[in-house]
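LAB NOTEBOOK - FOLDING QUEUE
OPERATOR: T.R.
BATCH SIZE: 2
PURPOSE: Compare the predicted structure-token outputs for two unrelated chains run back to back under identical settings.
PRIORITY: normal
REVIEWER: second-year student, initials M.K.

ITEM 1
FIELD SEQUENCE / FIELD STRUCTURE:
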Amino acid sequence: HLQVCEKCAAIVSDSTAARLTSPALETLRAVLTPPTGSDMDIASLIASAVDAGTDLFVGSPFAGYDLLELLGKGGFGVVYRARKRGSRIAPDLAIKIFRKLDSRRSASLQREIEGFRELGQHNNLVHALDDGEHEGHAFIVMEYVDGPSLQEYVAEQGPLPVKEACRYSLQVAKAIRHLHEHGKVHRDIKP
């Protein structure tokens, strides 16, 4: 496809693609196989690759961090396990990279990031450590908490005993109370 599509060939050779590791570039080349004459844009192709379980940016640098593993993706962006670039002993971090947004939504996102920063420390919330913008993408760096989500844990273990379920519910309630005390509303609580 790259031999016949100037648009995709230019994108693969630009500075963003130059940051990709060789295996990632090979994956990108393999994914770029829409029918000849197709109008599919590169963003759709990369999204298709991520949806298919292929992550092109693992091993690549982003804003002073090395992206180590794709942890999740959603409507606003992707979350990676990452490490401060060049550090051998730094702890793993979580970095959420937001999709490019129009100016109205970008201002809303900036307010949200500032609000996250204002929360301070709380035992039941991950701590924000850094934030910024890189190549047109806002990002926030948080502590990385290793282990399954509560949803994964319940799926693996089955229904929780009442005492254990109450302990987890209390932790969530304390976190929500802390948010509300700081005038924040969490709009995406998941089990």
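ITEM 2
FIELD SEQUENCE / FIELD STRUCTURE:
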Amino acid sequence: GFVAPPRTRMVGQYAVDRLAALGEGPSWSDVVAENPHLPGQRKRIRLYDVPRGATGERREQVIRTAQREYYLTSGLKHPGVVAPEDFFDDPQAGPALVFAYDAASVRLDRWLAANVETISLERRLDVLRQLAEILKYAHGRGVTHRALSPMQVFVNETSTGAVRVSVRDWQTGREDPGFDRGTTTPPPNLL
């Protein structure tokens, strides 16, 4: 007889590979997903967990958490701010955010541990400078991260040997309620 194929969770056009876990938080997990129509087109998907049997109120709370990160970073256009590209909500599986995927990015704590003997002072200062620029940019637009640690900072060594720093996981961030994102004059230096 007919045997139904196993159901693959889709987030937009991306097939989620639950075995390719990249990280997790208290209510989400990050996985790699690929567009089956464009082999090699991969994204990082943040799957938010809606507990089985959750009340409608609890489900809405999880959706608001995902939307919060999406909206909080939507106005931040900086190469060091990792912002979601899209938001999806599957009534059965829950909300998900779609991010660019960079297989070469490494968490700062892991990068430091793997390279502790070889990282020059200049390179260390460059990482700190880039991180300060990212935070200055976000703070200048009224957004603070509020959970920054080496686990949210990622480092990518490019083919030219340069280092690129980025900051992820803005879901616990805060937008200054008195800040108008439409203004062209940033608030006073917050760093």
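REVIEWER COMMENT (ITEM 2): Confidence is low (pLDDT under 50) at residues 183-191.
FOLLOW-UP: none requested
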